[in-house]
Amino acid sequence: MNPSAFRLLAIALPGLLFSPVHAADWLQFRGPYGAGVADASETTVPVTFSPASVAWKVPLPGRGLSSPIVIADHVIVTCSSGPDQDRLHVFAIHAATGKVRWERRFRATGRTMTHSKTNVAAPTPCSDGSLIFALFSTNDLFCLDLEGNLRWLRGLTYDYPNASNSLGLASSPLIADNTLVVQSENDSESFVAGLSPGDGSNRWLKPRRKAANWTSALTLGGEVTTVALQSTSGILGIAPSTGSELWEYRDGASTIPSAALEGVTLYVPSFGMTALRSEGTTVKKIWRNEQARPKTSSPVAWKGQIYFPEGGVVTALQADTGERLWKTRVQGDFSASPVIANGHLYLFSESGTAFAIPVGPDLKEPSVAGQMELGEPVLCTPAISGGAIYVRSDAHLWKLATPSS
Amino acid sequence: MSPRFVLCLLLCTGSLPAAIDEPLKKILEVGREGNGNASAAEGLAALSASTLDDLPVLIKALATANPLAGNYIRAAIDTLVDRETTAGRSLPLAPLADILLDPGVGDQPRSLAFDLIRRASPKAAERMIPGFLSDPNTELRRLAVENLIQTARDTETSGLKDDATLLYGQASAAARDVDQIRSLADILAKRGQPVDIPRRMGFLMHWDIIGPFDNTALQGFAKAYPPESEWKADAVYSGKSGEVRWQPLVTSDSYGKVDFNPPFGMLKETTAYARTTFLSDRDQAVELRLGCKNAWKIWVNGQLLFGRDEYHRGQRIDQYILPTKFRTGPNVILVKCCQNEQTQDWTVQWEFQLRVCDQTGNAILATDRPPTPKPQEARRRPAPTQ
Question: What's the complex ipTM?
Answer without folding.
Answer: 0.93
